[in-house]
Specification:
By secondary structure, the protein is α/β, with parallel strands linked by helices. Helices cover about 40% and strands about 15% of the residues. The strands form 5 sheets. The chain has a 7-stranded parallel β-sheet. A 6-stranded mixed β-sheet has the order 10-11-22-21-19-20. 6-O-phosphono-beta-D-fructofuranose binds next to loops.
Length: about 750
């Protein structure tokens, strides 16, 4: 196969096609070319018409066929690719009418030669080629044209789709794939990763037609802006193979239909996990879907990998580490063995030290302000939980969280602090994070300016796995609370990283926070998969991502104190499963972690819910609400909760209004509702552990390592390189022209 990476891939594809056509003319006296694809066709025709190419081809001997449902009927010049680009040869336009594309296409294909010389295939952003969509509606296949040379899918995404069938494509003498734009190039790159040198294994779109998929033998591919394939062919990820089979799984009827058909749906599709009532009846799944997904979970080894995690195996293979956050919340008589050593006594040793320290601070009248300096997992967990557990905080002590290296973060906290009554907790797993060390140095200078060097011992403590660096920084390791490399940063709120939280809510409530985690761990470990809430929620997410193509999820707590919950989950989920190679380094060809975002209701309702209700994208939502608020204002709480229930209902069932389309709510927008009695430390622990395990299960099914984060490294490295360049001489030219110019501008204006 010939692969061409070019700034203008259409020109490259056109040159290749022109060469094939010339050859055909010289061999047989004439040539035929079929061009599929709706948006790719105009650029290809433009390039073919280009003098450099068209002068070399005797176009009067070429039959050109346009094959796509978006090619307009004769006469509609605005939408007709060939006419638009003033093509030099006569082009057979597919006379598609909205009424009967199947018939039109069959006739069109029947008039073609038995064997086409060249077929051009476009690539869709979603992975379809020609007009084969990756996830056709089940009814669509019924509309397959009887002549298999032509292929019609009716009413996919509300549009009629028509193109050549596999017989014509694979029967042609040569196939060329052209990917215009970066998204399409990425799709093409994935295909190439899955292929050997000769075959692009495009099973995804065609798997819907022929179970097991059909190979298209692609002879040339052109794209701009990707070079991943240069890493050499990789073997196919087994997870991708498994997930490809999902494309044959039928999608469900609408929520309205499923509720009408099953009066028990609202009870059957509700599962209790510890104190959380999880209602997934408004998810777009039914019994058949769940059977398929549970089989996928079993095939993917979900149980074995869960057990491997709890057995202390090094499932974080790229860092060769165990994944032991579950040990952080185990009772003292439990055991969790990492590398032959039971770590639970170590965990409780640190918890005891934290408890003694927290009690001392809580009793010591002189400390009124605790400032946690950390970033990522060393900030988001305690900061989120401090807000979430507002109702349980110590009256005298407030906490602040400084994370951003931009000076306004530390400046605003120092501006409202008194050195004598402030305790700094420097939280960093590695104690090498530039943001944290910079903020910590500024805080130390501020403190010593006011109270002298000796004050550091009384006003600074560290939380880290790296005692050496803590000592280097100037904090006595007697004032350090440790944790271990088998605790990932984003899984560390229940380790010593939670010290500021423990000071705020007290050791007993912190213990109950840990008990909440542990109870959810037990549920995850012991509940059968079909009653296992993290597994169920993970599978629903897999269905949305890999079958329905929804690439984002909104998490919408109806509790203002959970304002930072979505931000916390962004790191937990996106740093864990935002991966595109599997645990063995194979490129994956399925989508992995979704984009997570959200804000508390009802504020979100007055901002972005419009798009969730009526936008073109489907955004699955998790709603989180409580029977009781942590405040005395019952009327407020009733209003809040009625809004949450209303949103869940409106999204799922909508309300049609044919007369006024702008008032139409089509519904069928999926959501899951998580309810608990009250937002307590234990319930918060349960919620966090629930999402941790969802991430774990999804990571297993996607075949990725959820416990490394190499994707953050390149930016850090470049920032370290650029920092001195902002000041030094001469003006750096080590980067691309854009970055050089940005640096130059900054140097001039700083
Ligand atoms: O840059 C990402 C990251 O490594 C996160 O995974 C981590 O939570 C954060 O930085 C902070 O790291 P540390 O706790 O070592 O300062």
């Amino acid at each position: 196969m010939e692969i061409c990476v070019a700034d203008d891939p259409a020109v490259a594809a056109a040159r290749f096609i022109a060469g094939q056509l010339r050859q055909a003319i010289s061999d047989r006296g004439s040539a035929s070319l079929a061009v599929s694809g709706g948006s790719t066709a105009p650029s290809l025709f433009g390039a073919l018409r280009d003098a450099a190419v068209s002068g070399e081809v005797a176009w009067d001997r070429v039959d050109v066929w346009q094959v796509d449902e978006r090619i307009a009927p004769d006469g509609d010049a605005d939408r007709n690719a060939a006419q638009l680009t003033d093509f030099p040869a006569a082009v057979h336009l597919m006379p598609v009418t909205a009424d009967d594309p199947a018939q039109a296409l069959v006739g069109h294909a029947a008039a073609m030669p038995e064997v086409l010389d060249v077929v051009h295939l476009g690539v869709g952003d979603d992975g379809h080629t020609a007009s084969w969509p990756p996830t056709p509606h089940p009814d669509a296949l019924a509309a397959l044209a009887s002549d298999e040379r032509a292929f019609v899918i009716d009413e996919f995404n509300g549009r009629k789709r028509a193109t050549l069938g596999p017989i014509l494509v694979n029967g042609a003498r040569c196939r060329v794939v052209l990917a215009t734009g970066p998204k399409k190039a990425a799709v093409l790159a994935r295909w190439i990763q899955r292929s050997n040198d000769e075959i692009l294994d495009v099973t995804l779109p065609i798997g819907a037609v022929e179970p097991g998929g059909t190979h298209i033998f692609v002879d040339a591919a052109a794209a701009a802006g990707f070079d991943d394939y240069r890493h050499g062919p990789m073997s196919t990820s087994p997870a991708s193979e498994r997930l490809a089979k999902l494309s044959n799984a039928p999608v469900t009827p609408t929520l309205r239909e499923m509720f009408a058909d099953d009066p028990d749906r609202a009870t059957r599709f509700v599962t209790q996990a510890v104190g959380l009532r999880v209602d997934w009846s408004k998810a777009l799944v039914d019994d058949a879907t769940m059977t398929e997904l549970l089989a996928l979970a079993r095939d993917s080894g979900v149980e074995a990998r869960r057990d491997a995690m709890f057995a202390g195996e090094h499932i974080n293979n790229t860092e060769d580490r165990a994944v032991g956050h579950a040990a952080l919340r185990m009772p003292s008589d439990a055991s969790f063995v990492v590398d032959g050593h039971d770590v639970v006594p170590d965990v409780h040793g640190v918890l005891d030290a934290m408890t003694a320290f927290a009690e001392r601070v809580r009793a010591d009248e002189s400390i009124t302000h605790v400032v946690n300096i950390g970033i990522g997992g060393s900030d988001l967990g305690p900061a989120m939980a401090y807000d979430a557990l507002r109702a349980f905080r110590h009256e005298r002590i407030r906490c602040s969280f400084v994370s951003n290296v931009g000076g306004e973060d530390i400046a605003s906290v120092l501006a409202t602090s008194d050195p004598a009554s402030t305790l700094f907790v420097i939280a960093s797993k590695t104690f090498g994070t530039i943001e944290t060390l910079t903020n910590a140095r500024t805080a130390r200078a501020w403190l010593t300016d006011a109270l002298g060097d000796a004050a550091v011992a009384e006003h600074f403590v560290a939380v880290s796995t790296n005692a050496e660096r803590v000592a280097e920084f100037g904090i006595d390791t007697a004032n350090m609370f440790g944790f271990w490399d088998w605790v990932g940063g984003r899984y560390s709120v229940d380790s010593a990283i939670g010290l500021s939280l423990m000071i705020a809510i007290g050791p007993d409530r912190f213990a109950s926070f840990l008990e909440g985690f542990h109870a959810m761990d037990e549920h995850f470990l012991t509940a059968p998969l079909e009653e296992n809430v993290p597994v169920i929620m993970a599978l629903i997410g897999v269905w949305y991502a890999n079958r329905l193509g929804h690439d984002t999820k909104a998490v919408l707590p109806y509790a203002n104190d959970l304002a930072r919950f979505a931000a916390y989950l962004q790191q937990l989920d996106m740093e864990s499963n935002g991966k595109s190679v599997d645990v063995d380094g194979n490129r994956i060809t399925h989508d992995s972690g979704p984009i997570i975002w959200g804000e508390p209701g009802t504020n979100g309702q007055h901002a972005f819910y419009q798009l969730i209700h009526q936008g073109t994208r489907i955004i699955p939502c998790d709603f989180i609400g409580f029977a009781k608020g942590n405040h005395p204002y019952q009327e407020h709480h009733d209003l809040l909760m009625s809004n949450m229930f209303a949103q869940s209902e409106a999204l799922a069932f909508g309300r049609s209004n044919e007369a006024e389309p702008h008032r139409n709510f089509e519904g069928n927008r999926p959501n899951t509702v998580i309810l608990a009695e009250r937002l307590t430390p234990s319930v918060l622990g349960q919620l966090i552990a629930l999402y941790e395990h969802i991430v774990h299960v999804q990571g297993t099914i996607w075949g990725v390592n959820s416990y490394d984060q190499w994707g953050v490294e390149l930016g850090k490295e470049l920032a370290n390189q650029i920092t001195p360049e902002l000041l030094g001489e001469p003006t750096p030219d080590a980067h691309d022209s854009s970055t050089n110019a940005l640096i130059a501008w900054y140097r001039e204006h700083r």
